[in-house]
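Dear Dr. H.,

I hope your travels went smoothly. While you were away I took the liberty of generating a structure for the chain from your last submission, since the lab meeting agenda had it listed for discussion. I wanted you to have the full record in hand beforehand rather than looking at slides cold. The sequence, exactly as received, is reproduced here:
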Amino acid sequence: MGFHHINSKVGAGSARRSNSRLRRHLQAMKSRKIFGISLSILLINLAAIMERADENLLPSVYKEVSEAFSAGPSDLGYLTFIRNFVQGLSSPLAGVLVIKHDRPTVLAIGTLCWALSTAAVGASQHFLQVALWRAVNGFGLAIVIPALQSFIADSYTDGVRGAGFGFLSLVGSLGGIGGGVLATIMAGHQFGGTPGWRCAFILMAAVSALIGFLVFLFVIDPRKTVGMSHESGKNFDRDELIEKGNASASSVWLESWAATKAVIKVPTFQIIVLQGLVGSLPWTAMVFFTMWFELIGFDHKSTAALLSFFAIGCAMGSFVGGLIADRLTQIYPHSARIMCAQFSAFMGIPFSWFLLKVIPQSVSSYSTFAVTLFLMGLTISWNGTAANGPMFAEVVPAKHRTMIYAFDRAFEGSFSSVAAPLVGILSERMFGYDSTSIDPNKGSPREALALSRGLLSMMAVPFGLCCLFYTPLYKFFWRDRENARMMSSKEEEMI
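The corresponding predicted structure, in token form, is as follows:
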């Protein structure tokens, strides 16, 4: 009896030590996992910052580019059109690439692509060269943006996804502020005989390339941290990704086609894309804000400050809008996000009218412009974070998320690309804009008035239609969400 008693004590002690080692091992694994996810989200947000900074570079120096290449508003609008149109057409490629590769690799490829094109724009000597490299820039952004959005969708749960998208938009907007302010201020100087706006492009390209390299090295795809079994320590999603990496081209395209059909037939996707076709027009038209303020007579620093007020308002608004939608969803799960989106779209109408029509277009109206731009940004920037991004993540299975964000960008980006040249055409042909009568130092109040009328035409009406087009979601969103949950449950049972 004594011998057996001693053996049982030894066995119990050994089991306790084994359990203790297992707990320490699991705790260490958990700590490494949390650190890896935190580092990944940090680098993803840095990539978002550089993406938005890159987007704001050219609009911030429209006036200087116009002088360097003798280009009018319609020509400048075509540069934005080319980039957005190529971006829209190329966006589905992001959904195809993530089937065969993990998202950090896709993000790194896209980031390096836009970095190269940004540097090339800064070195271009002819307008056609700028147009070509803006097309390449659109291709890079087409790969990056859907992958960024699906990365965030997979990193947060349904109840806080609005805050996740809001924070991504917040830091991205800060990047947009930095890029816009940097380019606008540098545009007024020369560095070693090189115009400041060219130096801004080359500097931004170098930083973007560095961020892309860090993303490739250190970011972990959220799919690799899901499905971790504490008992076996195996990662089934990683095995699935390895299998996809070895898949043939035909199987990748077949899976892409299946994902495409699954996404396009979802009514919620169709409705959000429909509102986005018109809702993105005002935002594309806003690239002329910098030029408009400089035509009024504001110098580079004052213009940069005004646009910073707007960008700060948009940054705060996108984050606050996501938080508000998350909270209201707990009370009104089927309609809260839709109501937030309609409120935000509607607010674009009175603010556009007041900004472009009511405020006297004079440098003495600086304070009024600043307050209006801040409040405008605070209220009209909710749609993507409060509604579109989170709702897309809920109406398709997780494996189709990159594809749904890619096709959203494809439809919206390609259609909204017409807004910028339309502003220029309306300003020149309907409202009398004449680029030859502009004083490079003092601007031109007459041309500023013509440009503001073109802007108002492409902002107030699309905002109203956007608000209206959200209405059918009250009927379809909850149905699509339940269907997606049922499909996900069936797939989990099969696994």
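Two observations you may find useful: Confidence is low (pLDDT under 50) at residues 227-246. The domain at 16-221+233-494 is CATH 1.20.1250.20 (Growth Hormone; Chain: A;).

With kind regards,
E. W.
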